Amino acid sequence: MKNLLLLFIAVYGLSIAAFAQSDKYVSSMKANLALFDSTNANPDYIALSNTFARIGDAEKTQWLPYYYAGLALSTEGWRSKTIDKDANAVQILAFMDKAQALTTDSSDLSEIDAVRNMAYTQEMLVDPQTRWMSYGKEAGSSLKEAMKFDPNNPRLYYLQGMSLFNTPEAFGGGKAAAKVAFQKALDLYAVAQPKDLHPNWGKVQTVSMIAACQ
Amino acid sequence: MICAQLVHAQTVVSGSILGSGKKPLHGVSITIKDSYDGGTTDSLGNYSFTTTETGAKLLIVTYNSYKEVDQPITIVAGQKLTVNLTLKESLNELTAVIVNAGSFAAGDMKRGSVLSSIDIATTAGSNADITSALKTLPGTQQIGEQEGLFVRGGEGYETKQYIDGTLVNNPYYSSVPDIAQRGRFSPFLFKGTVFSTGGYSALYGQALSSVLLLESIDMPEKTQVTAVLSPIVTGLGFQDLAKDKKSSWGFSYNYVNVGLYFDVVKQTPDYFRIPQFHNGDANFRIKTKHGGIIKYYTTFAYNDLGLRRQDIDSLYLKNAFGLTNHNWYNNLSYRENLGKGWKMNLGTSFSTNLDQIDQQVEDSFNQTKQFDPVTQYWMQAKNFTVNSLQDMFQVKGVFEKKITGISSIRFGSEYWYAYNKPVFNDTLHTQIDNYTAYFAEASIFLTNDIAAQIGGRVEHSTLINKTDIAPRISLAYKTSKDAQFSLAYGQFYQKPEATQLYYNTNIGFTKATHYIINYQFLNTQRIFRVEAYYKKYDALVTQVPLSPAYYTYDISGSGYAQGLDIFFRDKKSIKNFDYWISYSYIDSKRQFLNYPTQLQPNFVANNTASLVTKRFFTKIKSGINLTYSWASGRPYYDIMLNGSNKYFINNQGTTPDYNSLNFSAEYLPNLGKKNARTFIVLFASMTNVLGSSQIYNYNYSFNGSYKAPVQPPANRFYFIGCFLSWGVDRTQDAIDNNL
């Protein structure tokens, strides 16, 4: 009986600790995710990326902090004109590798490949004419992989739309083709039910891109 | 209350992080190990964060390409803690300085490339000839009367070409007097090109001025059939890529006949045998387990031509030159990762080349005319036949070992067996040379910003029975992210030409010493390079007259070249428009061959410049390329022998400036079309659009009373062609993957 009680206390104590830990994780993640959408005119995405990486390193088993650490750098990559896109992409891809090692869920893997697509695209855009063959191809195969993992991930169609939007019509791109992809993304966003803390970005951008396609 | 405060006591940790050169670093992550607590530095390198952790902890500081620092700290609750650190950059091949004084790299994956492989093919005026495209880079001369790359005051034969590490003995189609011939190898065979205009690595030798290093592609992108159709050339090719992409094989054949073209575009010489060329090639490639590859390439070529021109010594006589050439080239290479930081490059090549030349003076009825060999020896000397066989076999091995960081050492050896058997009229000269070289080179990176490449080469030739030792040193220092300075010094030796060694083998190596200083700014959008050099020539081959009709050779010549090469490329300033500008200034004099004193050679123009532009219009799927090249006039000489067997300049002058505007355009109708099974490229080009008169040199009559300009066989060259490929095109593939 005494042993049972001890066991009970031990289990109870552990679960409290676990719960407390998890609570800290969730609240930290939420607080930092809020920074993504902050209205701050000059958001520091590198600091945000570092924060997520820190959470990831401390947690050791969560893929989402690494995912967001990469996503923050990707956001900075789109925004900044001065950042070294090659070095930035190397870091994004390293975070994606860390994230991928911690999940086997196919919709998670689809999200990870979507970020990889952006990293390669950013490297390609440094010098599209010469890098199109190499990085352009990598970007394309990441998106293909992502679609295989989860064809209902709305972000993939948003990314596809962006690629089409920026591809000349003569090469099969253009606004009309892009709009089809954006519309599909929007339809999927409407039915998407993202889990807590899981990726949930792109809808606002999709809506504004549909407007840009008119 | 007090209790609550104790539990939540927060400590401020702050400080600043500096990088190399005490520069503040922005974006450095500072973390207390195994906690959520940490901060990021601002643009001044300062950070500050609060933590609830206490006691002995590890502060982990990480930043991009810098070495991670794990700093032990002790946090006392509520007591402000300051930690200032200086980070050291970790050695990184992607950001380190590049040791490249003297060399231009072209290739899609090479760091520090100034050109991509497609640039070589799309440079207007090059017509897919590697040498022509490289003539738009600084340091080269616009020579149209001879094949070869004339680099920084050097003769064409002072530049050597290597494919996958081994020397190519006959890189150009056989010489025709006063008409430059094309290179034998298509730029599409290669994924990378390094064109060194001086100060090159100890891994290569036997070139006083320059080496052109060509690296063949590893695997083709796809299985495909290709064809080319043009009034000048027809060809067919097949390339197979295994499903697992671990092996491939292929072959191609093309036939060139300029008969139809010469009917339409009149040529100055009278071609009594219309130039025709048969070319066949085959290859296989096998990837090995550990990331190595075995590659084999072979090409066979046959060509024949004959042309007749006005004789320089008589209005009534003509000079007829006929040439038949057979060439077979083989290259087998094996690259392997041996593990533990070791790499191996083995290469072997064999080539055989047979030139059958007949040259004669003809009368107005095209009948051969003979002259008295004593009283009219200069005329009789124009009647000859040559059957020249040149075989060359080589083996080369290079081993590379990574030492600390990104530093490495390379060493190896090579052996060349050269067999030359020319039959001149009825006289046979046989020449065999066994050439052996040993070389070693260390690339040492002291930091990411400072590197040195130190090497040496020992060479021995049995034919001339001489050994030499050639040291090579290069240093590079990075001044900012995209800018660097480099220095290079080296000694270079070269065996005299085979045609000279027939007269006398008792002479040594010719020698050049290079001193180079280079500044380079390079990013993906803009490249600016300026390079100054001084080059000293010793032991150049000179002609020693024995009698009016006979001479021998020694190596008592000397000379120098000094100058400045500037290169600027810009893809940024004008959208979708890419251009580069080259400018070279050179001052060079040498005493060699029959030059009586040190003279500016007739292949050196003091100023040369090129503007190369490329623009692709995606809407109409077409590209337009224009190249403009200019060179100041070159000197020309009439050198004669006086009564006491001494050379003197009987007459001299300077040619007019050289100008050439070249144009090419391509149209890709199926570009971007989904499911198109045929990929088509329509290509058209025209050289010397403005029709500028181009005079390369003057030929003098024997008595010096008459001179005739050396000009291209036609003022302009036109090409139209259609290139087809079946199979899924690789550009198509890239687009599909992107959508």
List keywords for this structure.
A: mainly alpha; 2 domains; B: 739 residues; Immunoglobulin-like; Maltoporin, Chain A; 22-stranded antiparallel beta barrel; six-stranded mixed sheet; globular
Inertia-based shape of chain B: globular
Strand content of chain B: over 45%
**Cα-to-Cα separation, first versus last residue of chain B:** 62 Å
If you average the pLDDT of chain B, what whole number results? 91
Provide the fold topology.
The complex is a heterodimer of chains A (214) and B (739).
Chain A: H1 2-36, H2 45-59, H3 64-79, H4 85-100, H5 106-126, H6 128-149, H7 154-165, H8 175-191, H9 203-212
Helix pairs in contact in A: 1-2, 2-3, 3-4, 3-5, 4-5, 5-6, 7-8, 7-9, 8-9
Chain B: H1 2-7, E1 11-18, E2 29-32, E3 38-40, E4 46-51, E5 55-62, E6 69-75, E7 81-82, E8 85-86, E9 103-107, E10 113-115, H2 117-122, H3 130-134, E11 159-163, E12 166-167, E13 190-196, E14 210-216, E15 224-229, E16 233-241, E17 247-257, H4 259-264, E18 270-287, E19 293-310, E20 318-339, E21 342-362, H5 377-380, E22 384-402, E23 408-424, E24 427-428, E25 431-445, E26 450-461, E27 466-478, E28 483-494, H6 498-501, E29 510-522, E30 526-545, E31 551-570, E32 577-591, E33 607-617, E34 622-631, E35 635-641, E36 647-654, E37 658-667, E38 678-686, E39 697-700, E40 707-710, E41 718-726, H7 730-738
Give an overview in words.
The complex is a heterodimer of chains A (214) and B (739). Chain A has 214 residues and is mostly helical. Chain A is 77% helix and 0% strand. Chain A has helices at 2-36, 45-59, 64-79, 85-100, 106-126, 128-149, 154-165, 175-191, 203-212. In chain A, α1 (2-36) runs antiparallel to α2, α2 packs antiparallel against α3 and α3 (64-79) packs parallel to α5 (106-126). The longest helix of chain A is centred in the N-terminal third of the chain and has 35 residues, at 2-36. Mean pLDDT of chain A is 86; it is low at 10-19. In chain B, the strands form six sheets. Chain B has a 22-stranded antiparallel β-barrel. Chain B is globular. The N and C termini of chain B lie far apart (62 Å). The model of chain B is unreliable at 1-6 and 729-739 (pLDDT under 50). The interface between A and B is large, with 42 and 42 residues.
